């Protein structure tokens, strides 16, 4: 069955936002890795309120949470495409999945560094 694209400017954009929101809900409710990242994001936000972090610290923390969840979502999409186009073992599929996971690693290390810079001085 062909997918009919809505090319109207206003309704087309509104539908894109709706599909994007539904996609975010699908990510959070079906993907364990995204559930974990979402849970960590909520926990860090609660900690931010408890520790009364500054506006600048909120900016960096919010960016870090968004960065990790976005890259994790894209990594999940890459994994799904890879499994769809080639479910069997293939060296190149392994390489593609590894480098997509590597992108999550960069984002996660950045978030850990930001978290450490914000909270370690408050605990020592
Ligand atoms: N079809 C395949 N061919 C070759 N290697 C694969 C294949 N599928 C997975 N792998 C290897 O296994 C690793 C994990 O793949 P998988 O799809 O389970 O990702 P994951 O990060 O564990 O998934 P999830 O995010 O769902 O927990 C990949 O990074 C890759 O090295």
From TrEMBL:
Any one of the GO BP annotations: phospholipid biosynthetic process
Membrane topology type: Multi-pass membrane protein
Cell location: Cell membrane
InterPro entries given in the database record: DAGK, DAGK_sf, UDPK
Keywords linked to the UniProt accession: ATP-binding, Cell membrane, Kinase, Lipid biosynthesis, Lipid metabolism, Magnesium, Membrane, Metal-binding, Nucleotide-binding, Phospholipid biosynthesis, Phospholipid metabolism, Transferase, Transmembrane, Transmembrane helix
GO cellular component: plasma membrane
Active site: 72 (proton acceptor)
Residue numbers binding substrate: 72
Cofactor details (free text): Mn(2+), Zn(2+), Cd(2+) and Co(2+) support activity to lesser extents.
Residues reported to bind ATP: 19, 31, 79, 97-98
Domain of life of the organism encoding this protein: Bacteria
Main location: membrane
Transmembrane intervals: 34-53, 99-120
Pfam families: DAGK_prokar
One of the record's GO molecular function terms: kinase activity
CDD domains: UDPK_IM_like
Cofactors, names only: Mg(2+)
Binding site for a divalent metal cation: 31, 79
Family, similarity comment: Belongs to the bacterial diacylglycerol kinase family.
Listed name of the protein: Diacylglycerol kinase family protein
């Amino acid at each position: 069955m062909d997918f009919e694209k809505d090319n109207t400017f206003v309704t087309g954009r509104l539908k894109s936002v709706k599909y994007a929101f539904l996609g975010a809900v699908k990510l959070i409710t079906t993907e364990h890795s995204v559930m974990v990242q979402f849970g960590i994001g909520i926990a860090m936000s609660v900690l931010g309120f408890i520790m009364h972090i500054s506006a600048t610290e909120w900016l960096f923390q919010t960016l870090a949470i968004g960065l990790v969840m976005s890259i994790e979502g894209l990594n999940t999409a890459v994994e799904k495409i890879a499994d769809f186009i080639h479910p069997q073992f293939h060296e190149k599929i392994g390489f593609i999945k590894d480098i997509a996971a590597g992108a999550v690693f960069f984002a996660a290390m950045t978030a850990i560094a930001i978290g450490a810079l914000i909270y370690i001085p408050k605990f020592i």
